[in-house]
Amino acid sequence: MPPSPGAKMALEKELETYKKNLPELKAHEGKFVLIQGENVVDFFSSYDDALKEGYKKFKLTPFLVKQISAVEPVFYLTRPVSAIHKTS
Amino acid sequence: MPHFTLAIDNGGPIVNAVVHVSEGRRSALQAQQVAVPPPQNIRALVDTGAAFSSVEPRVLHDLGLTPTGTIDFVTPSTGQGVVTTDTYDVDLVIYRTPSDPPLLMPNLRVAACELFLRQGIHALLGRDVLSRCILVYNGDMGLFSLAF
């Protein structure tokens, strides 16, 4: 079950790895990076390819797929929904 | 071009859809000899004000999903702050009737967001889905069409 709002994010460690390595990752800006734990695994041209490789390599072990961006994009919802895993 | 036309009801332009575990996750489950959760039937509101699609947490729970990404977003309820939330990958099938050609959205990245059930829906279909469609909203006739 997705945790209640305010709970720690499941991919906290992978996000830390992403942020820690962002200066180097910027060389691949626009690509999708596959991260598992503290390991930057590989880069992909599409979200689908990164996801496929993540499941192939790590099966049901958590992994992160993220598009590399020097400035994190912010998306908008016009409805006041409650998100799960609020971190800020 | 396949398309369907539906009536706009009190809740707005709403479609029936089925949410499946994504193909990659299905293969991983099968490789681990874990049963694949059955698909979930949902009602989803077409929302041009949503930059991305989101699904009620209960639906994601029933599919046994774990997050594979995150997204930063802002809503009227988040004030000045940006909220980071987990995202999940699903296969989404939108249809009018089972015999019509469906709109297939494999590996769709969705966020878990609450408050939809009170509105009689389970999901918002945002502009990530609409970027692959033509949406015609005929308010005068009380109809909307999706072509894909």
Class inferred from helices and paired strands of chain A: alpha+beta
Radius of gyration of chain A: 14 Å
Q: Tell me the strand percentage band of chain B.
A: 35-45%
Shape of chain B: globular
The secondary structure category of chain B is mainly beta
Strands of chain B, count:
10
**Roughly how many Å apart are the termini of chain A?**
21 Å
Gyration radius of chain B (Cα, Å) is 16 Å
What is the makeup of the main sheet of chain B? 6 strands, mixed, barrel
Please provide a written account of the structure:
The complex is a heterodimer of chains A (88) and B (148). Chain A is built from two helices and five strands. Chain A is of the alpha+beta class and 88 residues long. In chain A, a hairpin with a 2-residue loop joins strand 1 (32-36) and strand 2. Chain A is globular and about 35 Å long. Chain B is mainly β and 148 residues long. Chain B has one domain (14-132): Acid Proteases (Cathepsin D, subunit A, domain 1, Beta Barrel). Chain B is 13% helix and 45% strand. Chain B contains three helices and ten strands. Chain B has helices at residues 23-31, 57-62, 127-130, and strands spanning 3-7, 14-21, 40-46, 54-55, 69-74, 83-95, 103-114, 123-125, 134-138, 143-147. Chain B is globular, with a radius of gyration of 16 Å. The N and C termini of chain B lie close together (6 Å). The chains are: A alpha+beta (88), B mainly beta (148). Strand 4 of chain A pairs parallel with strand 5 (69-74) of chain B.
